[in-house]
Structure formats: structure tokens, C-alpha cells
Amino acid sequence: MAVEELSNSSYLDFTGYRIVPAGTSVQAAYNMRTEDIDTNPTNAHINVALILERANAATDPDVSLLSQNWATRQAALADQTTLWATYGADAATYQVVYNALDTAGYTILDSTNSYYVTSQESRTIWVQLDTAAQFNSLFSSSLQEFNVPGRPWDDFVFWNGNLSLPSEWNIAGIWFDTSNAPDGMQLTTVDTPALSQGAQSIGNSTTLTYNFPDGEGATSAPQAPQDIAAFYNFPLVGEDVATGTIGLIEPGVGSYLGSSPDGVIGTEFQSRLDAYLASSQIGQTGTGQVTVQGINGQTEVSSERSLDVGIVAAINPKSDIVLYNGSGQNTPASAGSATGINGLPTTGYAQASVFTAVQSSIWDPNYAAVTSNSWGDAQSMTPGSPFYVAYWELFIDAALRNQTTVIALGDGGSGNETSNGVTNVEYNVTQPYNILVGGTSLSSFDTAEADDTLNPGLYSLALAGDLATIWSLVQGGMTTLPTDAATVQYFVETVWNSYYLQGDTITGEPNLYWDTGYYQNSTSSGGVDPTQPIPLYQLNYGLAPVTSDPLAETGRGVPDVAANGGGNLMYLVPTADMGGTDVATTPDDGTSSAAPLWASLGVQLNAVFADQNLPNLGYMNDLLYIASAIAPASFNDVLYGNNTSSFLAGGDYRTPGENSGYSHVTPTGYGYEAGEGYDLVSGLGTPNGMVLARTLTTIAHTQTYELANGVSYAVIDPVSGASTASQTLLVQNNFIGAGVLVQVDGTDAVSMGGNSAFGWTSRLAGQAVQGDNFDSELMPLLDGAMKSAPYQIGVSAGDVLGVTANGVALDAYQELLTSEYGFVQFGDAAGGITLARPVAIAQTAGGVPDQEAVVRIRQNGGDQTQLEIYRVDDLNGGIDTGAGVVLPGQVGYAAAAAARNYQLVGGGTVIDAPGQKNFLQVEIADVDQGDIVALKYTNVTTGEIYWAFSQGNTGQASAIFAYGLNTWGFEDRPLTGDHDYQDLVVQLDFTSTAGSGLLVA
Question: Could you count the other beta carbons within 10 Å of the beta carbon of residue 802?
């Protein structure tokens, strides 16, 4: 067999990319002394995975299916029985490799003798290398061992140079079952700014604390996980609905409760979990059962495991839980026996790398549709190396298995606990198929009052009714007018950042009873992964992430989303041993809590999808970005805080060390700030679960129907930019400040007025129609801010719709995400000109006719008003009366529209608006797939009638403003009023009544 050297397969390609400078030797990277290196070890061993190419790698190396839209992916992934003939290994090649290894005397590890995954579908063959000689024979390289002075438990094997393998084996990836990385070294010239004393970020400093029942200490006030889910408006909180299985990655921990035979296999795990749920602090009951993969490989208790389990069980007590040990820890045979404790199989040289636990979760025959992973292998792999490919392909497998993989991004701030002076993220889990979760600090009004970074400040300004403060807090998810601290209510979310400088010591906030710092878990990670290109869904969203350090490298922005991670709010979860020898509940934090929270939302979303006869979401990142673009209220926008923590080893500052004691460091000051829209510390934001569920189901039904029927509802063609139909479009100015001269190609230029900084946005409109989840007392504070009055144009099919503002051509922005849902913006994240349809095209669940649709209405104007909803026959508002088509403004249009009015469920066709500040929800009947739905607004007080189409209005004034997905705001006096376009906000929802109507309320 011809043997070829594998590019980028050195030991530092496996462990040290972007941690140490390129060209560094293994010896230098790990500060090895010659006398501590065994070049001919007699007891060196390791397990390795050889991962073959996919069967179709030559024709489809990038797995192009995953770049298609969600509906296309779902259609292809439905048949898992035949899928892997394409995406698994070539059967003949796999057998050749397997036989060659077996014939050569290597022990192949599979389900018959281990907890490893070896199969043609996974393209993986795990091999046990018992000696250095076996390693050398397989890889044509020399295995050596580093005996770490004073820490024999940290000894590890390594090699110099690249590895080699037979070329005909078609090996794409390699993974060694271990976890290791060198300490960071300076990568480039950096700044060394001085730090300010005290808190390093806002909103993590409450003095309102919780005292541990055992007297161990005190920390920020905790909440039961389901109460934190309620803060995020989860769609099924408190509902009696079955939810699916959640897989938790718990390598080497599983259900372990102690060293006794019963403790090793977690005999009491279920009963302890049930006791936690039934405790007075949690108060939940459910039917969920815990099972364990790789049970004999679990060797230690972990608060991380208990945090994961407590959160998912408390939020979804009817969900089963699977704990994945992966390969497990090295468990030798019992004395005089070939088996381990309790007669279970031994695990040989297994080291429970996270890779193996993830692989086990993917290839479990009864795999969970949603997994949460709060662990990470230490390695940082060189892009293009077989090690990098192994992890990349692992998560492609998860996506092809239609599994949603939710991963905690990490708790090391912008430096990610790596002393190389620049920003870092955990590159082995940042693949574009994973939902990466960052951490926030959620402050209720009472914890904010006791936080000197918020009070005085946001707290006192909000209490005084300061408009700018209220405005930003509402954008960030606050739904209740602040009144006093006696009521626990969502107030503000900031970046989770517990760094605190006291003298020369960087440690944690005083409200933490444990030490923390730059080498410890205490702040949300976030930033840019320059090892990969920007994912398509981020490009389509308009992102171009760049690292904030001097290297200024582009790549995938992370996180995707965020949720509470600690700071001013912690989670009340079981103790490390699930309450066996301690109190049943204890506070805990981290992005390790934000990930299982998002996974818990994921299984609720899947339950909603199943109820509407949709498949599981699976790989869904692109849907999240679409949801944010078309319905921004799906997320709470985190606007405050930073995660700055880049540093070098050595210097004048002290911080708790990696192992014990204190280490000296030099901060370099590179990090990321929260801000409006997507940012590199909180991603798209934190979830508004109910709004997100409604938005995702609409997207899923739209894509599924369009795929099945070969239709498109896009405003413009995605390639040519041409109008897809003869249609009327609103032209809306979204630039803040002064007016602008706007021209749409083929139409006259129009001077449009300016916008107030507090003019309503799509996010605010979407929040206001949440019903009881949005305080009516907020409405008067948010009234009267002027918006630029829109105007309307008519365009023909094929017209290219370019837009200029003040003579400058504007690029289309997020058009590939929004066009199918009725609007396109030209400009960028800072503002622009939007072209939007003044009508909705009904996308019913499953595309079936005769459905009921939900109408949500929030009134903010003082006039008495009414609303009618009617069906038209084209996108210009025309109605075919049988005697011809009558258009808005023509004689007979009012009568034709009245004849087309939808009936309200319960009778009638006219909706009386609910009165100033108030909310109303009704349903209309007999809505068919593809109906073009229009609105008629009557100001009873003035006697004026306003149609969605300005041609029918007095002075052809446009009374309507589009606020994203099937949501519009009316101005009750468009000729003489304040032009705030939120006197009546109306949202049409065509899918939430489907199934059991779980999303109606």
C-alpha cells in the first residue's frame, strides 16, 4: 500500500492552533525539558478514530444539501434508512480499511467491546493502540511521552512531524480520545491598557443575595429554571404538553453519584431528580425518565451535569433525558476479572473526550432530536487538518441526522482563558450547524435596585419614566412598566461578565462566593472564529464579523443567541451529587446554563412543530436568522455590557490561576460590546419564546408549501432584483434623523421626512401585540414619536427595483431572508429604505383551505376606530366583481370590499378597536392558502376611512406602515396627525390555530 503524509497532522495541529505561534515546536509549546521526554515509552497507549471520506465526497465535498433551505433539507432527510448510502462511507472502501486493521492485529473498538462508535454510516473505525510500536507502525511516526514534573496524572503522549496513512484508505479525519492544549503564547503586537477599578461590565453587581442553606456562602438571587423560562415567554411553560427527549453531553460523568457500586451506576439518580423537582423551591412533577449511554465509563460527580439535568427537567418535566458518557473514562477490570464494576464492560484506554460523547449522541439508535453540550475538548485544531475535519464532519452528521445541537460557547470572555493576547473562541464546536449560546445577566427590578452599576443609572431613570431609557429597555425585552422593586419582573439583560478589579487583582464580583478571573469560568465568551468562512446565513443577514484584536481576521460570528448565564440571576439546580449528601438545590451559572435553557426551548418548539404536522427542526440556524430579520420581536436585544478579557501571561495584575493560587497577567483589552441588533457577545439576542415559535412555524409552512408547489411569494427576484409581479409597494424611510430624497427606479423622486429616534420599530410593534405579556401602561410612554410618512408606488412584473437616497445607490439588505415575507430593505443595519407590501399573502398551516387566522390588535391612538379585513384578487388591491376588476379609489370598491370581508369567529365582520392602550385578539374564519388579505381602517371619531392602498384614501395619503411579518401600524389622522403610525397596530397570524392551537394564546 502506498503511504502518504497527511498535511497539517502534527501534534500542534491537533492541539495548539492560534494558541501558540505557527512554527513552535511541541517541546517549546509545552515547556518540556529534555529529561522529561520519553522517546521510547514502554507504557504509551491511546485510542484513535479513523474517519473515512463520505461516499459522495468526490462529487459533493461540501454536503451541498445543508446549504439548501430548511424545507429542502427536511424533504431529503426524511428517509434516514437510505440517506447514509450517500453520506456514509463507501462500503467497499470501509471494509478494506477495517480488514487491513484487523489483519494487522489492531484491536478495533466497537459496541461489542467498548462504548465507541464504529460503523460504515459514521465512517468511523476506532482503533486501540496498545503500544508506541503500534502507533509508529500505523502512522509512520514516533510516539513519545511527556512526563509532567510533579503532576503524573497530566502525563501525555505526543509525536513530532506529520502522520502518514495509506492513500487508498481515503481517510478524511482523525481524532485521538484525549483532551489537551498548550498554554497560550503571544501571537502579535498588542496593547496593554490599564483597567478601571471595580466592575468591568454593567449589570452583574447586585448585592441582593441568596444564602446557601448549608452555610457555604452567598451569591446572587437564584430562580427555579421554569421561572427563568417564563421570563423568556417559553410557549409551553405551564402547559400539559408532551415534549421530546433531550440528550445531554456528560462525558465520563453520566449518572455517577459516588464510588459505591450503586453510586457508580447512579442507582438513585432518578429518585434524586424526582426529589429535586418535587422540592418546595421547584414544585414540578413529570413523567420524564433518565437513561444513560456508556454507564461503566462514568467516574465522577459534576455540578455541570446536575446543572444541565436540573434545568431541562424543571422546564420540561415530561421530557426523557439521555446522558451521554461517550467512550467513558479509563475503567480497568476488577481484580481477577475481565469485567469492570458490577460486571459491566471495561473501557480500556478511553479518556471520555467530548468528541466521543457527541458522536455517541448522534449515532444512538434512539437519538434525541435536541442535544445540549456544555463541555469542550481543550484542543484547538488547525483548519484543514484531519483533526479539524473530524470535528467539522461530526456536526455535519448531526445535521444530517436532523438533530438540533445546542452548545455553550464558553465562560472565558473574549480571551477564552487563553494567554495569547488576542481574542479567542472554542474553535472545535463553532461549526455553522451548531447553535452557539452566549450568556447574559438578567436583572429583575429588585436585583437592579441593589446593583450599583444599574442604580443610579438605568434603574433610577426608568423609575422616573425617562423615554430614552424606557425605549432601550423595551427593545431589550422589558414588557412591564417599572414601578417598584417589590415585584419580581424582567428589567434588563446585560452581558454576563463577572470580572472585577480590586487593587491589582482581577477576580469575580463581590456577590460571588468563589474566586474567579481570566483563567476561570466567569464571563460569556463571544467573538469571531477565523478558521472558517462566514456562514451563508450570516452573510445573508448582512454580517461581516472581524476580530477586534490587531489580527483583524474575518470568520463566523459567535454566539448565535444568548440566555441568562449568571451575574444578577442564577439557576436553582441540584447539587453535584443530585442532593445525595447535601441540600437538594444550589445556585449555579454559566453559558452552561444558557445552553440547556435553549435546548429546553428547542424541544418545546419541536412539540409545537409536531402539533402542526411539521418535522423536527433539526439544523435550524438559518431559520433563527430569518426569524430575527422578519420578526425582530422573536428576540430580546441585549444592548449593554462587554466580555473583554484578552490577556498575556505575566505582568502586574494578579488573577486566580489555572490550577491553584494566583497567576500574573497583562490585560490587552480586546473584546466585544453588546449593541443594537446582532453583536459578537449576545448574538441575535435572548428568546421571546412564544413570538419565536409563531415566527418559525410561519417560516416552516411557507418554505414547505413553496417547495411542494413550486411557487414563490417573494417581492423581488433574488438574482435580478426585479419585481416578481405587478404590485403596489409601500416606500418607507427607516433612517433616523433628517429627511431624505428617495427614488425607486422607474418612479419619481420623493422627499421623505425625518424619523424620531423613538419612532416605532418592527421589534416594538411585534412586542406590543403580545397581549397580556406586554404592559398596557407602557403604551402612553411610547406614543407620539414621529415617523417619516410612507408613500406608495405601483410596479410591474420585471421592473428592477433599485433605490437611491440623496443620490446614493443603496444595496439590498437581508433581501434573501425577508423577500418571501413581504418586504425588502435597501441600506444596512443602521437604516435604509424599505419596500413593503401593504397586504398579506396567507400561508396556512399545511397549505390547507378554510382555516381560522388570529388577528392581534393593540390600540395606542385615542380616537374610536374599527377594522375590517377583506380578500383581494391581486397585489394592487383589485377585486374581480364578475363584471370586471375594480381597484382602490374607483367607484364600487367599498361595496366590493365589503362583500369580501372575512367573517369573525363568533359572527360579524367589523372589529371594534379595544380603546387606547388596550389589546384585543380575535379570529377570522375561512382563510384559504394564498389569499391576498387587505385591511380597511375606519376612524369613527373623524368619519374618515383609510384603506391599505393609498389610492382609495383622501389625498391619497398612506395611513399604513409595515412592521415586518404580517404586521402593520395605522396612523389615525394621516393628513393632520402626529405620524407615529402606531395608533392601531395589527398583526395577522395564519398558522397558530393549527393543530391544538398551542400558539394562539
Answer: 15
Give CA–CA dist 137/510, Å, rounded: 56
Mean pLDDT confidence for 261-269: 88
- The backbone torsions φ and ψ at residue 474, rounded to the nearest 5 degrees and listed phi first, read -65, -40
Q: Could you tell me which residues come within 8 angstroms of residue 974 by beta carbon, excluding any fewer than 6 positions away?
A: 789, 946, 953, 957, 958, 959
Tell the residue number behind the cell numbers 484487523, with chain if given. Answer: 102
Backbone angles phi, psi at 564, to 5 degrees: -55, 130
Given this model, what pLDDT does residue 744 score?
93
Average confidence score pLDDT of the chain: 93
**349-367 per-position pLDDT tens digit:** 999 999 999 999 999 999 9
Give the range among 345-349, 700-704, 787-791 with minimum mean pLDDT: 345-349
Cell 437510505 locates to 82
Q: Return the DSSP state at 467.
A: H
How far is Cα 89 from Cα 77, in angstroms, rounded to an integer? 17
**The cell 423537582 sits on which residue?**
277
Which pTM was predicted? 0.97
At 448, which helix (H) or strand (E)? helix 445-449
Task: Specify the residue for cell string 482581577.
Answer: 506
Contact 751, 738 (CB under 8 A): no
Measured CA to CA, the distance from residue 815 to residue 819 in angstroms comes to 5
Q: Cell digits for 738?
A: 433628517
Q: Strand 823-828 vs strand 831-836: parallel, antiparallel, or unpaired?
A: antiparallel
Cβ neighbours for 407, distance < 8 A, ≥ 6 positions apart? 372, 373, 374, 429, 434, 435, 436, 437, 595
| Res. 648 pLDDT band, cuts 50 70 90 | very high
Summarize the confidence of residues 221-231 as an average pLDDT. Answer: 91
Residues in the chain: 1001
Apex CA 899: angle with CA 896 and CA 905, to 5°?
Answer: 145
Give the orientation angle of helix 591-611 with respect to helix 689-709, to 10 degrees: 50
Residue 914 cell numbers, joined: 379595544
Distance CA 362, CA 322 (A): 12
- Residue 326: partners with Cβ closer than 8 Å, 6 or more residues away: 115, 249, 251, 252, 293, 294, 297, 352, 353, 354, 355, 356, 357, 358, 359, 360
> Which of 197-206, 263-272, 390-399 comes out lowest in average pLDDT?
263-272
Name the pairing type of β-strands 561-564 and 435-444: parallel
Q: What is the 3-state secondary structure (H, E, C) of 889-924?
A: CCCCHHHHHHHCECCECCCCCCEECCCCCCEEEEEE
Give the end-to-end CA distance of the chain in Å, rounded to a whole number.
66
In whole angstroms, give the CA distance from residue 606 to residue 242: 10
Query: Which of 498, 474, 555 is closest to 758 using CA atoms?
Result: 474
Residue 685 has pLDDT above 70, yes or no: yes
| Cell numbers for 536 | 451563508
Please check whether residue 264 is in contact with residue 271, taking contact to mean a CB–CB distance below 8 angstroms: no
Could you give the C-alpha distances from 315 to 34, 228, 598, in angstroms and in order? 54, 9, 11
Summarize pLDDT for 94-104 with one digit per residue, the tens.
999 999 999 99
The H or E element spanning position 764 is helix 762-768
- The H or E element spanning position 832 is strand 831-836
pLDDT tens string 6-61 = 999 999 999 999 999 999 999 999 999 999 999 999 889 999 999 999 999 999 99
Q: What is the amino acid identity at position 23?
A: G
CA angle (18 as vertex; 13, 22 as ends), nearest 5: 65
Residue 270 CA, chain-centre distance (Å), reads: 30
3-state secondary structure of 941: coil
The model's confidence at residue 337, banded by pLDDT at 50, 70 and 90, is: very low
Model confidence at 331, pLDDT cuts 50, 70, 90, reads low
Q: Is 315's pLDDT higher than 50?
A: yes
* CA atoms of 32 and 925, how far apart (whole Å): 75
